[in-house]
Amino acid sequence: MVYRSHSREIKALVLWHCEQGHMSDEEICDIFEVSVSSMNRWRNNVDDYGDVIRPRNPLQGRPPALSVPQVGDLLWTIDSDPTMFLDEIRDWLIITHDVDLYKGSVQCILDDCKYTYKLL
């Protein structure tokens, strides 16, 4: 069967018909044009998570360039010496934390932390 996206309502309706037991699983799958493996996955999701759709993984996306302690250390350093330029901040990151970033990446990190007075 070709991959198709099914709405939450269709998934719940398929499982409701399975619970009623009036038809076999194969007949229900033929009527709704879903695979038996999809139906079993939806059942497992209901058993595990209480819904036909499992929750999103919170660890999606690219890992950050700096860890939380490194960002805290960076902000503390900038607060103690606000006259540092981006190339000096970059050199400080290389020496202190062994992290080599482009100046643009350092600028983005500072922008995310609401430190916007530093310019390239």
Could you characterize what this model shows?
The protein has 120 residues and is mostly helical. It has two domains: 8-49, no CATH class; 68-112. The chain is built from six helices and no strands. The protein has helices at 8-20, 25-32, 36-49, 68-80, 86-97, 103-112. Helix 1 packs antiparallel against helix 2. The protein is rod-shaped. The N and C termini lie far apart (54 Å).
- Which percent range describes the beta-strand content? under 5%
SSE-based structural type: mainly alpha
Described by its quaternary structure, the protein is single chain
Unreliable sequence segments: none
Radius of gyration, in angstroms, nearest whole number: 26 Å
Topology (elements, then pairings):
Blueprint: H1 8-20, H2 25-32, H3 36-49, H4 68-80, H5 86-97, H6 103-112
Which key features would you list for this structure?
2 domains, rod-shaped, 6 helices, 120 residues, mainly alpha
